[in-house]
Design brief:
The protein has a 4-stranded parallel β-sheet, sandwiched between helices. It has 8 helices and 8 strands, in the order βαβαβαβαααβαββαβ. It folds into 2 domains: 106 residues, Rossmann fold (3-Layer(aba) Sandwich), CATH 3.40.50.20; 109 residues. It starts with 5 loop residues before the first strand and ends with a strand. The chain has 224 residues and is of the alpha/beta class.
Length: 224
């Protein structure tokens, strides 16, 4: 006996990897799916790959949860599958208002997962190996933290906490790379470049394939 078809709402359907995700959902081997995509851009690939598509505000917009709920009701969605980190935060505090399951964790869990400094701090508290890190405020403190963590004898890495796709990532294993990271940090703080004007954190990745295995990575978190 075959399972009934269901409708899945996939948010941020213009994000990298969307085509592969939608293809995998259709090939699930269990039941037929009707896919509804949402995105803040009309040029989203989801417009072409989903069975229905709707433009909604950004996940950081206060109107995002209501817009998503309206799509859920209009399209008779059975489950909501958020993709973007911003969408996760935008939906986490409102999931109980939806008439269908929203596949997102509690707000505190989402915040901790998105904030690399908080993630590292939690790993240290529970005894899981994690990079050394520092949370600092401004480009001037980045240089001090880098030397405190052993630079230039050890490489240090930087990344904005709410960034993705390696945007803003630097591996400072030479003076030129550290200078580039400092310049980026100074410009970012000056421009308040991140979503909602909230410039967040720079942190290290615990593994970097480009670095030799003998390197012991440290991290610097740059906080607003």
């Amino acid at each position: 006996m075959s399972l009934r078809p269901i409708t899945v709402l996939v948010s941020a359907s213009g994000a990298p990897g969307t085509a592969a995700l939608l293809g995998a959902l259709r090939r699930n081997g269990e039941r037929d799916l009707r896919l509804v995509g949402t995105d803040m851009s009309e040029r989203s690939v989801g417009r072409h790959l989903c069975d229905a598509f709707h433009i909604v505000p950004a996940g950081s917009d206060p109107g995002f949860p209501d817009a998503m709920r309206e799509v859920v009701e209009r399209e008779r969605v059975d489950v909501v599958l958020p993709q973007s980190s911003f969408d996760l935060e935008g939906l986490a505090a409102h999931r109980e208002r939806f008439p269908v399951p929203v596949l997102v964790s509690r707000p505190d869990t989402i915040h901790r997962s998105n904030d690399k400094a908080e993630s590292y701090a939690l790993l240290h508290r529970i005894g899981v190996p994690a990079p050394e890190f520092r949370r600092v405020n401004g480009a001037a403190e980045v240089a001090d933290a880098a030397h405190e963590l052993g630079y230039p004898d050890r490489p240090v890495c930087f990344k904005p906490v709410f960034s993705s796709g390696s945007r803003g990532f630097f591996s400072a294993d030479s003076a030129s790379f550290l200078a580039a990271a400092l310049a980026f940090a100074a410009a970012a703080f000056s421009a308040r470049a991140w979503a909602s004007g909230d410039l967040s954190t720079f942190a290290a990745r615990s593994a970097l394939s480009a670095l030799p295995p003998s390197f012991s990575l440290s991290a610097i978190d740059l906080d607003s």
